[in-house]
Amino acid sequence: MPNPLIQKLEARDTLLPGEREALERIVVRSRTCRFGEIMVREDEHLNESTLLLQGFAARAKTLRNGKRQIVAVHVTGDFVDLHSFVLKRIDHSIVALTPCRIANVAHRDLEAITENFPHLTRLLWLSTVIDGAIHRAWLAAMGGRSAAGQLAHFICEMFLRLKAIGHTDGNSMVLPFTQPELGDILGLSSVHVNRVLQGLRSDNLIRWQDQSITILDWDGLTRTAEFDPTYLSLQKEPR
Amino acid sequence: MPNPLIQKLEARDTLLPGEREALERIVVRSRTCRFGEIMVREDEHLNESTLLLQGFAARAKTLRNGKRQIVAVHVTGDFVDLHSFVLKRIDHSIVALTPCRIANVAHRDLEAITENFPHLTRLLWLSTVIDGAIHRAWLAAMGGRSAAGQLAHFICEMFLRLKAIGHTDGNSMVLPFTQPELGDILGLSSVHVNRVLQGLRSDNLIRWQDQSITILDWDGLTRTAEFDPTYLSLQKEPR
DNA sequence: CGACATCTTGATCTGGATCAAGCCAGGTGG
DNA sequence: CCACCTGGCTTGATCCAGATCAAGATGTCG
User: Any CB–CB contact under 8 A between B44 and chain A?
Assistant: First the structure.
């Protein structure tokens, strides 16, 4: 089966000879995990990183009052905790939002890449930096936008990210999130998520039934979201 | 004068022979910029990164309604837009919150570091990843905490970051931010920042006069902030 | 079949926004 | 030197987006 990470990096720059093989070499053991399973626990000292081969996962922080804040959502091909390679200790846990297939990559092997493949190193670095850009987009959404704008922004983002890995079907995509989960992502209550969602539906911007979302009016949606896709770096550049 | 970046990296891992010199070699031209000056403009295509030698700077996004959201605050020694090295195009502008002294580092020179100094490359990578950890802490603060908790969290963070570079004096630090600026950082109105600040003062957690903040009760402050400093990675580790 | 979780709707409450005004300090120009 | 202006700080009054509480409807699974 193709390595979705390669596809993701190739979308940002062309891989040099040997880099593809180097990536394939380090992805060895893979395993599945169940919905809700915590793949990586907060504050653990890590010596491997997790590559998401299939499914949806989230990085979550839990507050003392029991509230859970999801700080990142990951899709097929994402290196969920590549940052732990240099961080060693992670500031959040990683939880499966659907059943997932994952591979563990030893930090020792990543270190070898930094020793031997500088260009590939820059591309891996890039993917952690894109995660940062997404964090910033969420910060701007939470700090400055209405709940509707925030939700619309999240939908736009997920659509482009899923499209980039070929997981969209025309204007539709599968987003397997419950409304309470959306609340944890957006920092809203599930009740309010429900009402805001109904607003987007009655404005004929989206259809959302079961877990299938259809975007009926991309322009309208991006307008209410104030969405500018530049931060996702979906362009090839020499890096 | 000492290079504050070296001090910052040394706090996270020990530099190998030659790395310090390599860093000093790439920091050549430096210049000052005025308060409010925009050092780097959003969406520009960049071929150099900005090292903050002195002063405070912010990364800011502006929304259509004119609201400004500050998504990161930087202090002396921070590589304000190191991420532009792999990103090439930046999703926010960078503005001086005080008069600053900055140095521009050519991406060509950074590329040379990734070719010749893998360990140093990992440390530079690390600093962009720590920026990401700070973004996540802010996300959790905005999504899950009250305004008072959020402000307390920001104060705790700034105190430790300034302490790490020797810019604190006992329990005091200079934070040259106006209340409207704090509003832009926290996603609150300046009026509300004022009231929340008064709350922290009347709880005897901090004193804040002019731009000098004294922390009167660190335990109490971290408790209202739910502050856990792990995310700042202020520990030496082999990376 | 019961148990459980999600979605939905309504009623009420509240944290923080907005609007408005007064106060003070520093900076400018006459 | 004063008159003025500007921007930040502070306080009060009002408003509203979103939280919370509560309950019913629907659906799924063992």
Answer: no
Q: What is the pLDDT of residue A2?
A: 63
| Calpha distance A228→B91 (Å, rounded) | 9
Tens of pLDDT, residues B92-148: 999 999 999 999 999 999 999 999 999 999 999 999 999 999 999 999 999 999 999
C-alpha span between A23 and A7 (Å, rounded)? 11
Taking only the tens place, the pLDDT of each residue in B58-76 is 999 999 888 999 999 999 9
Name, in order, each residue with C-beta under 8 angstroms of B219's C-beta and a sequence gap of 6 or more. none
Nucleotides of C strand lying within 7 Å of any protein CB atom = 5-11, 15-20
Cβ under 8 Å to B: A residues 163-202: 186-187
Q: Each residue of B86-108: pLDDT tens digit?
A: 999 999 999 999 999 999 999 99
- Half-sphere CA count of B100, side-chain side, radius 13 A: 30
Å between B198 CA and nearest CA of chain A: 22
Residues 6+ apart with CB under 8 A from A90: A40, A42, A43, A44, A46, A81, A83, A84
d(C-alpha A151, C-alpha A136), whole Å = 15
Looking at residue A175, its amino acid is L
pLDDT of B3 higher than 90:
no
CA of A75, C1' of D28: distance in angstroms: 26
The helix (run of H) or strand (run of E) holding residue B207 is: strand B206-209
Q: Could you give all domains of chain B from N- to C-terminal order, each with its CATH number?
A: 4-117 (2.60.120.10), 137-232 (1.10.10.10)
Is the pLDDT reported for residue A1 higher than 60? no
